[in-house]
Amino acid sequence: MKRARLIYNPTSGREAIKKHLPEVLAKLEKAGYEASCHATTEEGDATNAARIAIERGYDVVIAAGGDGTIYEVVNGLADAERRPKLGIIPVGTTNDFARAIQVPRSVEAAADIIAAGHTMPIDIGKMNEKYFINIAGGGRLTELTYEVPSKLKTMIGQLAYYLKGIEMLPSIRATEVTIEYDGRIFEGEIMLFLVANTNSVGGFEKLAPDASLNDGMFTMLILKKTNLADFIRIATLAIRGEHVNDRNVIYAKANRIKVATKDKMQLNLDGEFGGLAPAEFVNHYRHFDVFVPAGKLPDDPANQ
Ligand SMILES: Nc1ncnc2c1ncn2[C@@H]1O[C@H](COP(=O)(O)OP(=O)(O)OP(=O)(O)O)[C@@H](O)[C@H]1O
What we know:
This protein is α+β, with helices and mostly antiparallel strands and about 300 residues long. It has eight helices and 15 strands. The chain folds into two domains: about 1-115, Probable inorganic polyphosphate/atp-NAD kinase, domain 1 (Rossmann fold, 3-Layer(aba) Sandwich); about 130-285, Tumour Suppressor Smad4, CATH 2.60.200.
């Protein structure tokens, strides 16, 4: 019998998962799995739980939480040679990855997608020793994702990020970097750089408009040093995906990217603190099979 392990963050989002657990487990059992779950207890626990699921040979591992929980689960699974299929139940404040794979923000609907059994291959990124599934980045602006207190997120959700962004905007400084991407080089001052696996980043769904989930390539975006007025203009363009041709933006595909800086630069992986530069990003082609709705995603080989 196939076995599924649900790893859920009981504090995620507005603590939405807890009351739906019996239905989720029942749906999995009905789909033919022997299902069990693990509630995470603290930061890092989802990674440990995922490693244990590998040791115990689970066929499916499901991450239920926000992007932070998915990130931790991915890091517990990604080094294994035989990796379980990955399911996502989005109950966080930011659910960028779920949005990118069109898994709805309803516990029951997300569980139905896993029960239906359709998967597609997805690339992931590795930065130095850590993996990310959605987005990596650096620059002062990306730091706001972990400056938002968790309690505030639980209370007011996505709004907490925007409030923090407005608060930080006037103080954002540029960083001098050297970025090497597939043999090309950029040297100069930047506001931020992003290395995206998907098109869905921080609620901006068109930030990397042509990112593919499984072409073996990252979409890289560099925002050069700008003044505040230009910055706001480009952010507004980014809502519609019209920033990619702006003269302050470098937008390119690459599967290996190296970032070096003389200043201290914090790196961000899937919204979590990922260490300090220098960094090397490597794309791992079709590393996971992820449950997605059938017939919806253009990158799904089943729809091509
Ligand atoms: N029992 C727990 N108590 C406190 N924190 C926890 C617990 N379990 C996991 N965490 C931590 O909570 C962090 C945020 O979780 P998660 O991403 O699932 O949801 P979120 O708070 O809605 O945030 P977001 O969706 O913005 O990432 C994770 O980085 C994880 O390490």
